């Protein structure tokens, strides 16, 4: 596990499938022995795991949902407490946080994933990374980045999130070459630099690994957020998509054509609403089976994230599939005045308006039982006709216009980052369930 480009990621589809088939058989034997949840799941559905020998046989097993994790969280744990090294929780974006446990072996797997993922994005042991993300608060990602960079042999500066002045002081003192950050925070760094005469375009940071927010459209071009950053600051931006549940990441290479799959860590499927595989080229819900996980392995876990798979080999040399930008979260889909949309479509429009500094999108059920959208914007010096202007923008792009509520950036910021929050809240779902 030392190479930054594992051999398996340049192999043929047949060779990759053979490896995954073998790992799947081992996984099923493991959970059948150690997981209360999967023992019950197999028994309830009369599943004989000896009949499941290939990844094509996975469809004999029901999917694992977020509800399964919520209602049976402890039953997924496969090890005794004395083997657990690290306890983490999910961010709770779609509900209450879930507990996940990691053994020493799981932490090694996490480090390996981030090592090869960050190397995929052009990182080397000669780089110094500035972590603009928390490493505490039960957050897996910050720990994963640190462990991966340690394995890579790169330098790490653990600054944490927020604090633009401290970020720039660190950049000036230690000359980091790559940052790991939420992309919208880069706009705040640019704003602070411009207000304080910092020559940010010629600073040491040349690349940023972007987490938590999309920077690309479905065709891999920069979306509004990506354009706003790169128009101001000529950085190389790399998308990465990950989750606590899968303990792995899909990270772009220099080609910027989707996040590369690590088949030695995950089996992936793209499923429709009936848990059937979508046709090639169609969007589906990313569904993962975690390989070589000891603490809490998952089989056919539906992530809730909608995306597309790209199967043609990449010019970087990897033959593994690539995942498109996340088109939206299944539970966050909004049906508004006859139009179906996901929050990122709203964000992309809001990010084009210079006087809007931050925002929160709220969705609720109105008195006739349909979805309503209210967008609370934090604005500086909006024009007198801002409400009409914004609604015209929405109608031009989406054919519908939400309700706009004007606020101050300070008030919105407080709502976005409540105490103990690990990343900004931009979407609040108040719909009747």
Q: Please state roughly what percent of the residues sit in beta strands, choosing from under 5%, 5-15%, 15-25%, 25-35%, 35-45% or over 45%.
A: 15-25%
- Helix share, percent: 25-40%
Structural class: alpha/beta
Query: How many structural domains?
Result: 2
Mean pLDDT: 92
**Biggest sheet: strands side by side, in what order?**
4-3-5-6-7-8
- Ranges where pLDDT stays below 50 over 5 or more residues in a row are none
Number of helical regions: 11
CATH superfamily membership of the largest domain: ANL, N-terminal domain
Q: Termini, distance in Å?
A: 45 Å
Computed CA radius of gyration, to the nearest angstrom = 22 Å
CATH class category label of the largest domain: Alpha Beta
CATH fold call of the largest domain: Rossmann fold
Q: How does CATH name the architecture of the largest domain? A: 3-Layer(aba) Sandwich
How many beta-strand elements?
21
Can you give a write-up of this model?
- With 433 residues, the protein is an alpha/beta fold.
- 30% of the residues lie in helices and 23% in strands.
- It has a six-stranded mixed β-sheet with strand order 4-3-5-6-7-8, with helices on both faces. It has a four-stranded antiparallel β-sheet with strand order 10-11-12-15, with no helix packed on it. Strands 20-19-18-21 form a four-stranded mixed β-sheet, sandwiched between helices.
- Strand 3 (128-131), helix 5 (140-152) and strand 4 (155-158) form a beta-alpha-beta unit.
- The longest helix has 22 residues, at 13-34.
- It starts with 12 loop residues before the first helix and ends with a strand.
- The model has no long low-confidence stretch (mean pLDDT 92).
């Amino acid at each position: 596990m030392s190479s930054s480009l594992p051999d398996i990621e340049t192999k043929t589809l047949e060779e990759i499938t053979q490896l995954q088939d073998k790992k799947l058989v081992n996984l099923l034997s493991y959970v059948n022995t150690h997981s209360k949840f999967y023992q019950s799941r197999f028994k309830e559905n009369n599943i004989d795991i000896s009949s499941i020998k290939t990844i094509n046989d996975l469809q004999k097993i029901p999917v694992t949902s977020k509800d399964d994790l919520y209602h049976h969280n402890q039953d997924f744990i496969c090890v005794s407490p004395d083997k657990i090294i690290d306890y983490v929780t999910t961010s709770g974006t779609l509900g209450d946080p879930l507990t996940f446990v990691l053994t020493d072996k799981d932490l090694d797997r996490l480090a390996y994933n981030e090592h090869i993922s960050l190397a995929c994005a052009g990182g080397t042991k000669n780089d110094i990374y500035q972590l603009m993300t928390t490493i505490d608060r039960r957050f897996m990602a910050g720990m994963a980045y640190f462990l991966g960079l340690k394995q890579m042999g790169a330098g790490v500066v653990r600054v944490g999130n927020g604090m633009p002045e401290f970020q720039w002081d660190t950049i000036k003192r230690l000359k980091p070459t790559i940052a790991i950050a939420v992309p919208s925070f880069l706009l705040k760094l640019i704003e602070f630099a411009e207000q304080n005469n910092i020559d940010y375009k010629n600073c040491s940071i040349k690349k940023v690994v972007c987490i938590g927010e999309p920077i690309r459209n479905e065709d891999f071009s920069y979306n509004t957020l990506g354009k706003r950053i790169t128009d101001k600051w000529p950085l190389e931006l790399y998308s990465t998509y990950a989750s606590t549940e899968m303990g792995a990441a899909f990270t772009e290479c220099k080609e910027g054509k989707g996040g590369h799959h690590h088949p030695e860590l995950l089996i992936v499927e793209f499923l429709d609403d009936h848990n059937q595989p979508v046709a090639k080229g169609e969007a589906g819900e990313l569904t993962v089976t975690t390989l070589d996980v000891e603490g809490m392995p998952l089989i056919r876990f539906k992530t809730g994230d909608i995306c597309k798979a790209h199967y043609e080999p990449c010019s970087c040399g990897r033959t593994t599939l690539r995942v498109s930008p996340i088109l939206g979260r299944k539970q966050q889909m909004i049906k508004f005045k006859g139009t179906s949309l996901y929050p990122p479509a709203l964000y992309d429009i809001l990010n084009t308006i210079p006087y809007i500094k931050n925002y929160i999108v709220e969705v609720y059920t109105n008195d006739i039982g349909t979805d309503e959208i209210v967008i609370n914007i934090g604005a500086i010096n909006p024009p007198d006709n801002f409400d009409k202007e914004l609604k015209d923008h929405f109608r031009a792009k989406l054919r519908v216009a939400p309700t706009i509520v004007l606020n101050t950036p300070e008030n919105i910021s407080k709502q976005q980052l409540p105490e103990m929050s690990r990343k900004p809240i931009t979407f609040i779902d108040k719909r009747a369930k």
